[in-house]
Amino acid sequence: MTTLAIYVAAALAEIAGCFSVWAWWRLDKSLVWLLPGVASLILFAWLLSLSDADYAGRAYAAYGGVYIVASLGWLWLVEQRLPDRWDLIGATICLAGAGVILLAPRGG
């Protein structure tokens, strides 16, 4: 699995897990919503550990840009709210930063 695919899968798992807590706490959903949420957050952590980055902090930093873009996708597709231009500009800046972190040439 490529690094981008790992980050996208991890982002979906993290967002789903966090949304389960949001739904329970903010939308008055049943406590049962937390069970798949916890499983999803465990999946998220495992997926992120599959990254081929040399250091965890660098993997997490690069992943952050993908997470932001995926979160706006969630906003649009699940919560039925279109991201505005500021959301899109901010996500583009963050994704560019994640690309620099992930793809920068590093000497050995």
Main attributes?
about 110 residues, flat, about 75% helix
What does this 3D model show about the protein?
- The chain is 75% helix and 0% strand.
- It is flat and about 50 Å long.
- It has one domain (1-103).
- Helix 1 packs antiparallel against helix 2, helix 1 (3-26) packs across helix 3 and helix 3 packs antiparallel against helix 4 (85-103).
- It has four helices and no strands.
- It has 108 residues and is an all-alpha fold.
- The two termini are 24 Å apart.
Number of helices: 4
Q: What is the end-to-end distance?
A: 24 Å
Q: Which value, in Å, is the CA radius of gyration?
A: 15 Å
Structure classification: mainly alpha
- The number of domains is 1
Order of helices and strands: HHHH
Helix content: over 70%
Mean pLDDT comes to 94
Number of strands: 0
Strand content: under 5%
**Main pleated-sheet profile:** none
Envelope shape: flat
Low-pLDDT stretches: none
Secondary structure elements and their pairing?
Blueprint: H1 3-26, H2 34-49, H3 56-77, H4 85-103
Helix pairs in contact: 1-2, 1-3, 3-4
Short structural summary:
Pfam families: UPF0060 (PF02694). The chain has helices spanning 3-26, 34-49, 56-77, 85-103.
